[in-house]
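We examine the record.

___
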Amino acid sequence: MEYSCAFRCIAGCEGSYDLEEVIYRCPKCGELLEVSHDQEALSRRSAPAWIKLFDDRAGSSKWPYASGVWGKKEWVIPHIDDDCIVSLNEGNTNLFWAERYGANIGLPDLWVKLCGNSHTGSFKDLGMTVLVSVVRQMIKNGKPIKAVVCASTGDTSAALAAYCAAAGIRSVVLLPKGKITTAQLVQPLANGALVCQLDTDFDGCMAIVKKLAEEDGVYLANSMNSLRLEGQKTVGIEIVQNFEWEVPDWVVIPGGNLGNVSALGSGFDLMYSLGLIQRRPRICVAQAESANPLYRAYKEGYDNYEPITAKHTEASAIRIGNPVSIRRAIRTLQRYEGVVEQASELELAEAAAAADRTGTYCCPHTGVALAATKKLLARGEINPKERVVVISTAHGLKFTDFKIRYHENQIQDVESEHPNRPVALPNDYDAVKRAVLESI
């Protein structure tokens, strides 16, 4: 079957634009674009046939279907040439039953989608495989693209640099100086990106990147480019596939620039429209209290959204005060009976630490989502019998400094409840024996 997709305005303006056109906003109204698929063509294949196709591809060794993204190629970028796809076997991440942590908070059917178990350690890989693959095809077809550029709080830059390195394409990343972890800084450096550290925050980097993307030969990789969202939407599809095509009651996702929220909804929308699922989950967007523009808008009924200057938060990847995808996120939440919750620095740190004690290794952003889940449960918005999935956006190994400072009780405004420090002992059996027996 022939499937196709194109850019269209999210506000509904007439007209469509080829995915290989360098365009990020609607030329008529200035709104963001989205990738629109030929629903009629997709609906010619039955829901059971789609399910069988995707299940048969899971774990396949046939290129490019081993990828959790490209295993659903017809729903992502159906017409891209297979030899232009740049894949690092992203996706297909494990869905962890947080049995002990869920029991501790009174939510036995709690699951964590470990998106950080990916090539560069974050869910950003899901979107970057799509964007860089399309860029590779654009270059093949004669588009004069010399570099791909992004502003980042760390994870986007790591994904862009890795995928561009694999494709042999120049990457440029703009980072806020002193506001990302050492591990996140090292990743794009190691992959050969031009790394520019700016004396500003993410929003300042984003403002400069938007101007830079207007230069000839420079292509924008931030989530205002909806190619990224096509890959990220597969996380919702994966979750349902993990549950043998059953839909959870809630999905809780950390929110920064907010492209991931609309991407999540897009995946569920597509499954619903094609009959693979019969209902939608509710969605909660979790924000750090220090960077909470969407939460503030939600409390005002979305009528009075105002950008803010984000303050320091340990959840550095979502330290964003003026999210690009705010309108897309609001539309998604309104469709999904969505809510927005926030977490303080104390709440996110303790949620991450408590979850770690039950077998996870949480990034601080997952801590934000877990803290939000606990709040929703406490006030009765989440029923204890419901199935809840928390999206873990990055691997905890990217945030080792956060872990160390927590256990050394050195996080500002946080008195650690679960510190665990190494015990210094002499090379003496009796001393070791005494320490072990006293601890058990």
Summary: The domain at 95-121+229-407 is CATH 3.40.50.1100 (Rossmann fold). The two ends are 63 Å apart (CA to CA).
